[in-house]
Amino acid sequence: MIQVSKEIALKPIYLEDQGLLLKVIRKIYLPVYQHLWTDNGDFYFEKNYSVSNLTQELAEEGSVYYFIEYRQKTIGILRIQFEKECIDFPGQPATKLHRIYLDPEVHGLGIGQRLLEYTIEQSRTRQNSYLWLEAMDTQEQSLQFYKKNNFKISGSFKLEVPNIIEKWQGMHRMFLRLF
User: Fold this and answer.
1) Which parts of the chain register pLDDT below 70?
2) For residue 137, what are the CA distances in angstroms to 57, 63, 100, 132, 149?
3) 18-45: pLDDT as tens digits
4) How far is C-alpha 2 from the geometric centre of its chain's CA atoms?
C-alpha cells in the first residue's frame, strides 16, 4: 500500500482482484460514460478488464496499476505506464497516465489533483521529460482539469472501437512537459 496523503492510498491490483476491478470500474465508469456506447459499455469492459487483458497489463514492464482508496474505501483506479513514449515526442522519455477513474461521488474533493501530483512526482523521479494521456474531446470536465494543470493538446484522433457511438469517438492526446 502506498500512502499518497493522509486520506488517499494506492493498493496494488493483482490478477486475483479482477472480479473486484470489474465491479469497481462498472460502478464508477457507467454514470459518466454509459452514453458513449450502444451496448452499455460491455465491449469496453470485456476488452479492458478481462482476465486476459489484466494479465497482459500486469505483466507490462514499467507499469503500475492500483485501486484508489479514500478514507479506506475503494473509490477508483489508477494505471501509469512509465517509459511509454508518446508518438508526438519520439525518442523522448515519457510517462503515460493510462487510466484514472474516480467515483463521481468524490469528484471535486481534490483527489484527482493529488493523484496527478503523485504521478508527476513519480515521472520526474524516473527522469521522464513528458507526462501524457488520452482524453475524450467531449469530456469538458476532464479537459478543463488537465488544462488547469498546464497540459496541452499535442494531437487528436478518433477512437475506432466497436460499439462506440460515432459522435463520441473524438480523442485528444495531451501532454505536460516535466523537464
Assistant:
1) none
2) 25, 25, 16, 15, 17
3) 999 999 999 999 999 999 999 999 999 9
4) 18
Give residue 12's pLDDT. Answer: 98
Strand pairing class (94-102; 2-3):
unpaired
Four-CA torsion 98, 40, 170, 177, nearest 10 degrees? -20
* Contact predicate 118/80, CB 8 Å: no
Distance CA 45, CA 33 (A): 12
Question: Do residues 173 and 153 touch, judged by C-beta distance below 8 A?
Answer: yes
Give the cell for residue 162. 466497436
Please give the pLDDT value at position 58.
Answer: 98
Residue 20, CA distances (Å) to 14, 27, 63, 96, 116 in order: 10, 11, 20, 24, 24
Residues 6+ apart with CB under 8 A from 57: 63, 65, 79
Q: How far is CA 76 from CA 2, 25, 29, 129, in A?
A: 15, 7, 9, 27
Sign of CA dihedral 17, 18, 20, 21: positive
The pLDDT of residue 41: 93
Cell match 527522469: residue?
Answer: 127
Cross-strand pairs, 171: 136, 157
